[in-house]
Amino acid sequence: MESAARIRIIALGGTIASTTGANGRARPRLTGDQLLTAVPGLDQVAALEVDSLDPVPSCSIGWAQVLEVADRIERARQAGLDGVVITQGTDTIEETSFAWDLLSANGMAVVVTGAMRHSDHPGADGPANLLDAVRLAATPAARSHGVLVTLASEIHTARTVRKRHTSSIAAFTSPTGSVGEIVEDRVHLAPPDSRHVLLTAPTHPAEIPRIPLVRACLGDGGWWLTAAQAAPGVVIEGMGGGHLPIAEAMRLREFAHRMPVVLTSRTGAGDVLRQTYGGFTGSETDLLDAGLIPAGDLDGMKARVALSLALALDMPREEISSTFEVLGTGRETLSGAVS
């Protein structure tokens, strides 16, 4: 055996666990044990345990499953395991992996993987991705990276990974580039970022508020603002460097006096600007001066995950702002959120 690492597989379903039925359409059916049988020699990489949840398509994953897996990750860490590999559908990997990154302590490797082609497809990528994920989870260097995501032999951090194609096996990218790759059975992994944010997991999904995520669009007019005013917080994907049309900007400036309003960019890459444009309503300086919270280089989906968890933990406004200051840069250490 190449490694004596003890790795637990947590299987959630998704394309990697999907087979086709009589109608020729795929849906999740396979258990974690069945996934392992499709990867000959996997037991030579690590000592494996399997933990299967009811297989679901990833579009149906909610906070209940996220918190359940977070609890199982923590139990695996307390049991002294070296790593956990989570298999799921790819539709929500950007969000789930980031949530687990916020809720998981250092000291144990946590790797998320999936597949873009179901198991009956002649070019199924699930077995190779699962093998790579186990190999990565068995690598000691992965234990200080927080949650990692690997597909197509590339390694991404949960904070930066994004799905950018509907069907390509190379659908996942990071705006700042991957942090490693797996070549000829060897893991090449860059040094970890200096920060890792740890939040106490809510005990029940009902504690996590529903936060609207809205993208600013040409001619939108802010029709959605009436419904959003009842929410405990809002995440808005601004245009360009973080700009909004006048109607949305004026209302969201009012919202920011009574709820956290997090500003991201709809572009998908780059930081929200802070001091380039000004002198007009809806510029980034106008919005930040009014109290909107910049999300740095986090996209809207990840910002929504972070804000939802922060509000579930009753974080005060100042702590939410400082949390986003760290999450949006990935270059500092935040310890105040640990409880």
Describe this structure in words.
This protein has 9 helices and 16 strands. It is α/β, with parallel strands linked by helices and 339 residues long. The strands form 4 sheets. An 8-stranded mixed sheet has the order 4-1-5-6-7-8-11-12, sandwiched between helices. Strands 13-14-15-16 form a 4-stranded parallel sheet, with helices on one face. It has a two-stranded antiparallel sheet with strand order 2-3. Strand 13 (213-215), helix 5 and strand 14 form a beta-alpha-beta unit. Helix 2 (63-78) packs across helix 3 (93-103). The relative contact order is 0.11. Mean pLDDT is 91; it is low at 332-339.
The number of helical segments is 9
- Shape designation: elongated
Spans where pLDDT lies below 50 across 5 or more residues: 332-339
Question: Which structural category fits the helices and strands?
Answer: alpha/beta
Number of strand segments: 16
Radius of gyration: 20 Å
Give the strand order of the largest sheet, numbering strands 1, 2, ... along the chain.
Answer: 4-1-5-6-7-8-11-12
Biggest pleated-sheet summary: 8 strands, mixed
How many angstroms does the end-to-end distance come to?
39 Å
Give the ordered list of helices and strands.
EEEHEHEHEHEEEEEEEHEHEHEHH
The overall pLDDT, averaged over residues, is 91
Helix coverage percent of residues?
25-40%
Strand content: 15-25%
Question: Topology of this structure?
Answer:
Elements: E1 6-13, E2 18-20, E3 26-28, H1 32-37, E4 47-56, H2 63-78, E5 83-87, H3 93-103, E6 109-113, H4 126-137, E7 147-151, E8 154-157, E9 162-163, E10 172-173, E11 180-183, E12 186-189, E13 213-215, H5 225-228, E14 234-238, H6 246-255, E15 261-265, H7 284-289, E16 293-294, H8 300-312, H9 317-327
Parallel strand pairs: 1-4, 1-5, 5-6, 6-7, 13-14, 14-15, 15-16
Antiparallel strand pairs: 2-3, 7-8, 8-11, 9-10, 11-12
Helix pairs in contact: 2-3, 3-8
